[in-house]
Every structure is written in structure tokens, then in C-alpha cells.
Write a structure and sequence with these properties.
About 35% of the residues lie in helices and about 25% in strands. It is α/β, with parallel strands linked by helices. It has two domains: about 5-130 and about 315-340, Rossmann fold (3-Layer(aba) Sandwich), CATH 3.40.50; about 130-310 and about 345-380, Dihydrodipicolinate Reductase, domain 2 (2-Layer Sandwich). The longest helix is centred in the last third of the chain and has 18 residues, at about 315-330. The protein is globular, with a radius of gyration of 23 Å. The chain starts with a strand and ends in a 7-residue tail after the last helix. About 45% of the residues are buried. The model has no long low-confidence stretch (mean pLDDT about 95). This is Gfo/Idh/MocA family oxidoreductase.
Length: about 400
């Protein structure tokens, strides 16, 4: 029998229990679940019922030091991700963080620096959407230059509808001190990651965010952000938690083609036969007349391909878990290296900072200024400790 990675799960809530279920059902063949840590004593009986062969720990440090596990996945509140990642790596334990990597870049940068000093250990992040075959194929198309240089990249992702009861279920949710933000840090990190993974990291952002706009919460429930990639290329990101019917539409316009994704399921890829500027400069008025009158053959200018895959949500998560184990066992390249997690955190921080200050900010913003403004909001809540 081939060797399996001995995994521990830190946090047995909705996500942690789902990962345990995937492993128990054989969806992650290279992983053996051997331990779970959770501070809620009521979880012990539930874990024993569902996974009787798994050890229970009431403290994650005890789990890390037990020798029972060689790797962990953390499914805990966002502020704890960097701390737990460092604690695991310090003890020689491979770590897979749930998204986001943290709440603010200073804490994530510290984690990345520590992980870089321990290259013998695997450090990954649960960006399961990178395991969506549709987005993997689109990244290949963009990286290969099939639609040319990107000129614009827009994403409307408002399929994150949440009722007020969702926010009322716990005191930490949708707070600055407990969760660190709203839709940008809870629901939309996957799209913030994919946007940059496929289209590149922007240079600056100007954002309008609404705080407690349609929900009784302190943090953002609607965001519109305009980014600048440089050289005239721009992008727009729109997200919200109050659109009950929701839209998921991602467009990438290049100077030699275009990609339009609907509902993260179907993509239409248009490839121009020549770069758009060449088409424009070579077109006479008769050609324009034919186009306006619908008398031209579209194949003279472009081809279109529709791409669609069947991709179950659980298989995306289990695939990242299996890839994490494969990297530990034989060095298979990671789908989502843990160090990539800082990109989405930085963009979310920049969006918040721009909305707080009311003007455009660079992606290399002043991290101390951001943290000071975040702490002002945490202090105003009067419930949670400020952050360092």
C-alpha cells in the first residue's frame, strides 16, 4: 500500500467537517485523517461518532506537538491563519491554510517569510477555484497569449447573497475585530485570487465600498473597485451580499481576443485573426458598410470557442487536498502555493484603504497606515483586541 500523509484538521466547523467527510469517502486517496483539534468540547462526541478512529485534541498546539500528524489544514477564523501557520511550520509540520491567508498584509508577510526559511516543508492555501478545470484552461489561454495583451478585466460577482440571520449566528462574524471585514474577506477571496492569478496584479485601485449598506453589520456588504494595471489597462470588480438573484460574469478583453465567463461554468473565447489595431487600420469604408449592414462573414475577423466542464464543488476542495499531499510525498507542484495568499489580502486591504481615504491607492500602500485605520474600527466596536 502506498504511503499516505497523516493529516490533522484544526477546527471542526462547516469547512473542517466537510474536509473530514471528503477524506472518509476516499476522495483524497493520499491522505489519512488521524486527528482533529477544536476548542469546543461539544465537538468531541460528534467527531467520535463520525470518525471513531480519529484522535481528538482540545488545543491545536497539543496536536502539533503530539507527533500524531505530519500535516494540518486550518479551518479557523481569519486572524488565526498566519499564527497557526507559523506554529505548525516551527514544529516541522506541513500546513494548508484555509482562505484567506490572513486579514492584513503585515501578518501574512511574516508567515510567508517564515515559510520561505523552511523550504523543506509544504505550505499551501485552499484556493479550490484554481482546481476548477474551466479557470485552469482560461489561465493557459491567457498565458499563451491567445487573446493578446490584456486591456480590460471586469468581474461582477454578486452571487454571495446572505440574509441577516447569517450574520447574527455568531458575535465575531461581519466584525472588524473578529472577522476583519465583510464580503472581501469572507465570500470573495476566491475571485480576488483568480482575477490576479489569470490577469496579473494591478498597480493601483480606487474603490467605493458600502458598510452596513443593506445589512445590519459594521463591515462592507457592497464593493465597486476600479484597478489600473498600467499601460492603459484597467479592470472593475463588483461584489455584494444583498443581490438575491446574483450575477457571476467575468470578462477579459485582450487586443487579440476576448473571454466571457458566465456563472463560473461556461466560457466563450473569441480569438481575432489579427490584432484589433491591425483590423481597424486595414478596414475601408466599404468594409465598414458591410459590417454595419450585417453583410460580412464573422470568420473573416475571428473564431469562437465555447468551453464548459462538469466540475463538482467538493472535487475542487478534495483536489487541492490531494495536490497538497502529493507535494509532500513526491514534490508535485502546488496548485496554490501558500505564498500566493498575500496577493488577495493585499488587494482587499487596498480596496478597504481606498474606500476609507476616498482616493486611489497603490498596491504597495503603507501597511502601517492600513493597520492603524483597521485598529480604529476594531476599537470602535469595543469587543475585540486591536492587532499588532
Amino acid at each position: 500500500m502506498s504511503r499516505k500523509v497523516r493529516l490533522g484538521i484544526v477546527g471542526f466547523g462547516a469547512q473542517g467537517s466537510a474536509y473530514a467527510k471528503f477524506i472518509a469517502e476516499g476522495m483524497v486517496p493520499s491522505v489519512e485523517l488521524v486527528a482533529v483539534a477544536d476548542t469546543d468540547p461539544s465537538k468531541k462526541e460528534r467527531i467520535a461518532e463520525l470518525h471513531p478512529e480519529v484522535q481528538y485534541f482540545d488545543d491545536y498546539l497539543t496536536l502539533l506537538e503530539s507527533g500524531a500528524v505530519e500535516a494540518v489544514v486550518t479551518t479557523v477564523p481569519h486572524y488565526l491563519h498566519p499564527e497557526m501557520g507559523i506554529q505548525a511550520l516551527e514544529r516541522g509540520v506541513h500546513v494548508l491554510l484555509e482562505k484567506p491567508a490572513g486579514v492584513y498584509t503585515k501578518q501574512v508577510a511574516a508567515l510567508n517569510a517564515y515559510a520561505a526559511a523552511r523550504p523543506e516543508l509544504t505550505f499551501a492555501i485552499m484556493f479550490n477555484q484554481r482546481n476548477n478545470p474551466l479557470y485552469r484552461r482560461l489561465k493557459e489561454i491567457v498565458d499563451a497569449g491567445e487573446i493578446g495583451t490584456i486591456r480590460r478585466a471586469n468581474w461582477i460577482i454578486t452571487t454571495w447573497w446572505r440574509p441577516q440571520g447569517y450574520y447574527n449566528q455568531s458575535e465575531w462574524r461581519a466584525t472588524w475585530g473578529g472577522e476583519g471585514g465583510g464580503v472581501l474577506v469572507n465570500q470573495a477571496p476566491h475571485q480576488l485570487d483568480l482575477w490576479q492569478w489569470i490577469c496579473g496584479v494591478p498597480k493601483s485601485v480606487y474603490a467605493k465600498a458600502a458598510y452596513g449598506f443593506r445589512r445590519d453589520i459594521a463591515v462592507e456588504d457592497e464593493v465597486t473597485a476600479v484597478v489600473d494595471y498600467g499601460d492603459g489597462a484597467t479592470g472593475v470588480f463588483v461584489t455584494a451580499t444583498h443581490d438575491i438573484t446574483g450575477t457571476d460574469r467575468f470578462e477579459i478583453l485582450g487586443d487579440a481576443g476576448k473571454i466571457v465567463v458566465e456563472d463560473s461554468k461556461t466560457a466563450v473565447v473569441t480569438r481575432l485573426n489579427r490584432p484589433e489595431r491591425e483590423i481597424s487600420e486595414g478596414m475601408g469604408m466599404e468594409d465598414v458598410r458591410r459590417m454595419f449592414m450585417g453583410e460580412f462573414d464573422p470568420s473573416e475577423l475571428y473564431t469562437r470557442e465555447t468551453i464548459e466542464f462538469a466540475s463538482a464543488w467538493g472535487e475542487q476542495h478534495s483536489g487541492v487536498l490531494e495536490n497538497f499531499a502529493a507535494n509532500i510525498l513526491d514534490g508535485t507542484p502546488l496548485l496554490a502555493p501558500g505564498s500566493d495568499g498575500i496577493q488577495g489580502v493585499r488587494l482587499a486591504n487596498a480596496i478597504h484603504l481606498s474606500s476609507w481615504k476616498g482616493h486611489e491607492v497603490p498596491l504597495d500602500f503603507d501597511e502601517d497606515e492600513f493597520l492603524a485605520l483597521l485598529n480604529e474600527r476594531i476599537a470602535a466596536e469595543g469587543t475585540f483586541p486591536q492587532r499588532a
